[in-house]
Write a structure and sequence with these properties.
Layout: H1 3-12, E1 33-35, H2 36-47, E2 51-54, H3 61-70, E3 73-76, H4 80-94, E4 98-102, H5 106-110, H6 112-120, E5 125-131, H7 147-151, E6 157-160, H8 167-178, E7 186-191, H9 192-196, E8 198-200, H10 222-234, E9 238-242, H11 245-248, H12 252-262, E10 266-268, H13 288-294, E11 297-301, E12 320-325, E13 339-342, H14 345-357, H15 368-389, H16 398-408, E14 413-418, H17 421-427, E15 438-439, H18 450-460, E16 465-471, H19 472-478, H20 482-487, E17 493-498, H21 503-513, H22 529-535, E18 539-543, H23 549-559, E19 563-568, H24 576-581
Parallel strand pairs: 2-3, 2-4, 4-5, 5-7, 6-7, 9-10, 9-11, 11-12, 12-13, 14-15, 14-16, 16-17, 17-19, 18-19
Antiparallel strand pairs: 1-8
Helix pairs in contact: 2-3, 2-8, 4-6, 4-18, 10-14, 12-14, 16-17, 16-23
Length: 585
């Protein structure tokens, strides 16, 4: 058998267990051998993984060698949390499965925050953790921790690979679990001796691409589609709330067609932002409260009724509630629903739309007055904001900063928000121009995602501009990986809204403990982050006047470097979202 034939056989032949060996471990035949590290890389490539994010460690170097041999790019960072955040961000942006590789012990525990964020945000990634040799387990080896048990609560699958012959099989199993129902992360720990051991390549099982898991694009019960169509046809004042699963299911286009055809006002949150163009007449941003108070039918698509929705209390009690979600456990949680459909959001919306297109009366005409009412209210809300959006006050009002960033963004700009109060301000102003161009901290409230998300965005879309708004507190969490972006040629434009405080918690502290405690554990030093950028080989500017924001952003763009524009914003103003949602109110 030629080498080419042996390589082809390795992709599909079933596992038969370890090959016989002579004394000393040498293979009994002259067959080509493949290491666990190379087999792992083949399995990752088979799944479509083209980049891994990592911080090096002795237990995982064989993974790097395998990835290089298979043409998988290795991006090294300075903290394992950054590696998992970047893998998460890459998955969201590309629709592929993200992958991070970390070493044993503290390498794996450092990665937990990124995994937890992906779990709460329903993002598919595989974390691979190193492990001491099997023969040294539970003897006090370096990094000997119960990784699998630690990861179980925040993953969909968490296991140990116990032999080289099972490496590819376990990888395919982990990926399959990532996409069972709503997406989420999986974890595999692989002992260093498994990565270094070799087996006969003819016994190395690598499942054929696309052959080891079923389609996840579920329609749900066809009778429920008929019920949904009937509800919408009769609705006089409906509204639709779209959440993260719109992007997960790549259902953005069908959502636009759905709302346009049926005359339904749309409100988006999180990754669903950008589905509707900023000037789309069916896209609303400031009137959600009015819509929920006045709607007779509320359609909730891929959006849990968690704290962001007041656990369902924000829904009108006598409205007909329809909830569509990938996860059965989400439907009806915290609030009763009139109709619950478990399925792919795009498939369900398409089926309902096709049904209504053929109906004699789909109710669209009867909604013109409702839409006009919301459009007029939306215009009034925008006009009321204008004085703050164009404020000349010093220190700079955060709304003015958000306004200038929104004016700066192009049709191809990916915007990332990483912060508390400053990003809450931005959420009511900044409008991405297309799907997949908004990323934020997510429902877990994980600060520190900015730099790794920017890294992932630039890898996924090298020709797009990436703009990240940081709070000064959040930037400090993972900011050292600004250097990783400089070193690996992944430029982005960072803007630090600097008020020298943890301002979102500061508001809560004042409210709960009294004004005199506002600075307690919330006051930060005045840091010139522009100098930090310059020190690491990037571009930086300090901005203290509103008129200087736009020119500084343009100079950052022109530099072509990783940039930090440090904008000094007013610490004594708080966003309406912060004041409404504080836990101490």
């Amino acid at each position: 058998m030629s080498k080419a034939q042996k390589k082809a056989t390795a992709e599909t032949s079933p596992a038969k267990g370890p090959s016989p060996t002579r004394a000393g471990g040498a293979p009994a035949s002259g067959a080509e051998q493949i290491s666990g590290g190379r087999l792992l890389a083949k399995a990752l490539k088979n799944e479509g993984v083209d980049v891994i994010f990592t911080l090096t460690g002795g237990e995982i170097v064989d993974v790097f060698a395998g990835c290089i041999a298979e043409g998988i790019r290795v991006i090294d960072v300075r903290h394992e949390q950054v590696a998992t955040h970047a893998a998460d961000g890459y998955a969201r942006l590309t629709g592929k499965t993200g992958c991070a590789v970390v070493t044993a012990g503290p390498g794996t525990t450092d990665a937990i925050t990124g995994v937890a964020n992906a779990f709460y945000d329903q993002s598919a990634l595989l974390l691979i953790g190193g492990l001491e040799p099997l023969k040294e387990r539970h003897r006090g080896a370096l990094g000997d921790l119960p990784h699998v048990r630690l990861m179980e609560p925040i993953t969909k699958f968490s296991e140990t690979v116990t032999g080289v012959e099972r490496v590819a099989e376990m990888v395919s199993m982990a990926f399959r679990e990532c996409y069972a129902g709503a997406p989420g992360p999986s974890f595999l720990e692989i002992p260093v001796d498994v990565l270094r051991d070799s087996i006969d390549s003819t016994q190395a099982q690598v499942p054929a691409p696309g052959r080891y898991r079923a389609s996840t694009r579920s329609l749900g019960d066809p009778k429920d589609i008929e019920s949904l169509a009937a509800i919408l046809a009769k609705a006089k004042r409906p509204c639709a709330l779209f959440g993260a699963q719109l992007m997960t299911c790549r259902a953005n286009d069908v959502a636009v067609e759905f709302c346009h055809t049926l005359n339904i006002p749309a409100y988006t949150s999180g990754p669903a932002r950008g589905t509707f163009a900023p000037d789309d007449p069916y896209h609303f941003q400031h009137t959600r409260r009015q819509a929920l108070d006045g709607a007779d039918v509320i359609l909730i698509v891929g959006l849990p009724l968690d704290y962001r929705m007041g656990y369902g209390r924000s829904l009108r009690p006598d409205a007909t509630i329809v909830q569509i979600d990938l996860d059965y456990r989400t439907v009806g949680k915290n609030h009763d629903v009139s109709l619950g459909i478990v399925g792919d959001t795009g498939v369900v919306l398409r089926a309902a739309l096709d049904t209504l297109k053929n109906a004699k009366d789909n109710g669209a005409r009867a909604r013109e007055g409702w839409l006009e009412e919301l459009r007029q209210a939306e215009q009034k809300a925008v006009e009321a904001l204008l004085p703050q959006l164009r404020s000349e006050s010093v220190p700079i009002h955060p709304l003015r900063l958000a306004y200038e960033i929104n004016e700066f963004l192009t049709e191809d700009s990916i915007f990332i928000g990483d912060g508390g109060d400053v990003v809450t301000f931005a959420g009511g102003v900044i409008q991405p121009k297309a799907p997949g161009q908004w990323m934020d901290t997510g429902p877990l409230g994980t600060l520190g995602v900015g730099t790794p998300f920017a890294m992932a965005a630039k890898l996924a879309y090298p020709n797009k501009e990436v703009v990240c708004l940081f709070g000064d507190g959040s930037f400090a969490l993972t900011g050292w990986d600004f250097e990783s972006c400089v070193r690996q040629g992944l430029p982005f434009i960072g803007v630090v809204g600097n008020n020298s405080h943890q301002n979102q918690v500061r508001y809560s502290t004042r409210l709960h403990l009294g004004q005199q405690y506002g600075e307690l554990a919330n006051k930060l030093s005045d840091v010139d982050y522009s100098e930090f950028a310059k020190m690491l080989g990037g571009y930086g500017e300090e901005v203290r006047e509103p008129k200087d924001i736009q020119p500084a952003l343009r100079r950052a763009r022109a530099s072509g470097k990783c940039s930090l524009i440090n904008v000094w914003v007013d610490p004594e103003v708080f966003s309406p979202g912060t004041m409404r949602q504080t836990m101490y109110k």
